């Protein structure tokens, strides 16, 4: 008899990893091969390093690692405490990358105020703030031994919802950043609309959207296998009772 798989199959997790790898390659290509697009020509080498680190840390460090942390409960074997430990550590690394990535953006000569004017910057600060609060609440709720079980059960659905919401918000924030940067470069005439850099940035945006869909779908899919024969048996039992 056929079985209904309620856990994400191996192919889904593999597709998520391939999507993440593609995103990483694209953002590194953009940051390293087209690095002159990130700052004016008269800026120093130090400013160039800070400018290039921002997209790398926010995409690879923040989005990709936090996505992998979400998938930990789906693929990592072992006890629940092991999975929670790895999940917590990966989310902590992602949070650190997010904070450092924002600090890099605000480290320029113009200061914080000059870089805090766009929807992208506002969403970025809100996203990292929510992520930090979510990480702290998750740590206190699921790792504090004095916490009673009923409170953990009540907090868990909100923890999962806010985690997925924050992850989705991070991807949307990255998309607004890509759109803002590419529009600015094209308006100035530094990048052609049909040029190679435009293709790389647009492909990066598409792959980020695809990756977020795969990660969220894997996260909300039920975990366990339920044989179809058991489902039919349960339905027949309900009908005869």
Could you give a short description of this structure?
The protein is an all-alpha fold and 241 residues long. The chain has helices spanning 10-33, 45-75, 80-105, 111-114, 119-143, 149-188, 196-220, 228-240; strands at 3-5, 225-227. Residues 1-8 and 224-241 have low confidence and may be disordered.
Arrangement of strands in the largest sheet: 1-2
What gross morphology would you assign?
globular
Biggest sheet overview: 2 strands, antiparallel
Q: What does the average pLDDT come to? A: 81
Share in helix:
over 70%
Secondary structure tally: strands: 2
| Radius of gyration over C-alpha positions, nearest whole angstrom | 21 Å
Beta-strand fraction estimate: under 5%
Low-confidence stretches: 1-8, 224-241
Distance between the termini: 25 Å
H-E order? EHHHHHHHEH
Number of helices: 8
- Category from helices, strands and their pairing: mainly alpha
InterPro entries: CYB561/CYBRD1-like, Cyt_b561/ferric_Rdtase_TM
Subcellular location: Membrane
Cofactor: heme b
Membrane topology: Multi-pass membrane protein
Task: Outline the structure in words.
- The protein has a two-stranded antiparallel ribbon with strand order 1-2.
- It has helices at residues 10-33, 45-75, 80-105, 111-114, 119-143, 149-188, 196-220, 228-240; strands at 3-5, 225-227.
- It is mainly α.
- Helix content is 78%, strand content 2%.
- The chain is built from 8 helices and 2 strands.
- Helix 1 packs antiparallel against helix 7 (196-220) and helix 6 (149-188) runs antiparallel to helix 7 (196-220).
């Amino acid at each position: 008899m056929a079985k209904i798989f309620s856990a994400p199959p191996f192919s889904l997790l593999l597709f998520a990893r391939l999507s993440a790898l593609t995103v990483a390659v694209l953002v590194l290509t953009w940051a390293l091969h087209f690095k002159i697009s990130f700052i004016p020509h008269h800026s120093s080498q130090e400013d160039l390093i800070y400018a290039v680190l921002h997209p790398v840390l926010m995409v690879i460090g923040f989005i990709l690692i936090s996505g992998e942390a979400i998938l930990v409960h789906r693929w990592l074997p072992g006890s629940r405490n092991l999975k929670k430990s790895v999940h917590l550590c990966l989310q902590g690394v992602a949070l650190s990358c997010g904070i450092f990535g924002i600090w890099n953006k605000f480290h320029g000569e113009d200061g914080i105020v000059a870089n805090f004017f766009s929807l992208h910057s506002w969403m970025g600060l809100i996203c990292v703030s929510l992520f930090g609060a979510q990480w702290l609440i998750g740590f206190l709720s699921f790792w504090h031994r004095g916490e009673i079980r009923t409170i953990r059960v009540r907090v868990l659905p909100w923890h999962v919802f806010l985690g997925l919401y924050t992850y989705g918000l991070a991807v949307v924030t990255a998309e607004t950043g890509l759109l803002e940067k590419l529009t600015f470069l094209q308006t100035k005439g530094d990048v052609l609309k049909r040029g190679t850099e435009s293709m790389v940035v647009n492909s990066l945006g598409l792959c980020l959207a695809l990756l977020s869909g795969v990660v969220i779908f894997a996260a909300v899919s039920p975990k366990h296998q339920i044989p179809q024969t058991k489902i039919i048996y349960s339905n027949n039992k309900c009908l005869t009772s």
